[in-house]
Amino acid sequence: MNIVLLGPPGAGKGTQARRIQERYGIPQLSTGDMLRAAVASGSPQGRRAKAIMDSGQLVPDEAMIEIIAERTAQPDCRKGFILDGFPRTTRQAEALAKMFTEKGLKLDHVIEMTVDEAALVERISGRFTCGQCGTVYHDSTKRPRRDGVCDVCGSTKFVRRDDDKPETVRARLKVYRDQTAPILPYYRRRGQLKTVDGMADIDAVTAALFKLLGEP
Ligand code: ADP
Ligand code: AMP
Fold first, then answer.
1. Is 0.85 surpassed by the pTM of this model?
2. Cα(120)–Cα(24) distance, rounded to whole angstroms?
3. 87 preceded by cis ω (within 30°)?
């Protein structure tokens, strides 16, 4: 099963992609996580990406399309995958469609998570993740069960993203409106776009998603 999760930064894509990954045994492919790994590795590609990410802009389409083509060719993607953060431009959406055709794959679900823009800055400003396993938390809506200890892997190391500062978040939201939101009509025209209410609480969003994916 191949899934695309769409929605602005902070909509809850990463949170839900991890739950889908666990339930269906297909990997979450987060282009943001891949770029952050490249930054951490200190590679030339990572150094170029870092400056762009810190300004809230998008990494060039060609680089992203190549990253996704390579990643989806890995053996763990044979049963399917969840795209989180890709596509982000019409060009990326078109390249993805071409890649699916060439590889004989089917895009089973394109799901938009809708969220009031007013909630997003608060969501992103409170976000932190486990430094070991990447589980996503929030200062007020999703704290670990034991303060300072990851629910999933027990690590005590947590990280906050450099680009989650309010001024960068505002730039990222503008980029979403200008460059990413236009791909919604692209999928709607093709009759592929489904929607879930991303303002509901985290478990309710998961239940709505699992239902869209075919659960009773
Ligand atoms: P995205 O991957 O779309 O940028 P995340 O999954 O990282 O979004 O979620 C952004 C922040 O909002 C995180 O701190 C997360 O814990 C929190 N969050 C996610 N979904 C919800 C929700 N339904 N209600 C409240 N907070 C949420
Ligand atoms: P995310 O983790 O999805 O919020 O992405 C963090 C940052 O990585 C974005 O603000 C972009 O700079 C970059 N990025 C992630 N995915 C893409 C993509 N598909 N196209 C271009 N840039 C991307």
1. yes
2. 28
3. yes
The answer to whether 1 and 109 have CB atoms below 8 angstroms apart is yes
Q: Which H helix or E strand runs over 138?
A: strand 136-138
Query: Are the CB atoms for 8 and 87 separated by under 8 Å?
Result: no
Of the ligands numbered here, which is closest to the C-alpha atom of 5? 1
Nearest CA to ligand 2 atom 14: 32
- Residue whose CB lies within 8 A of the most ligand 1 atoms, among 5, 136, 152, 206, for a mutation test: 136
| pLDDT by 10-residue block (mean), the chain, 216 residues | 98 98 98 96 93 97 97 97 98 98 97 95 95 96 97 97 92 97 96 97 98 94
Q: Which ligand is nearest to the CA of 83?
A: 2
Q: Which amino acid is at 129?
A: T
Residue 212 · residue 194 · CB < 8 Å:
yes
Pocket test of ligand 2: the residue of 58, 72, 178 to mutate, having most ligand atoms within 8 Å of its CB, is 58
Distance of alpha carbon 204 from alpha carbon 197, whole angstroms: 9
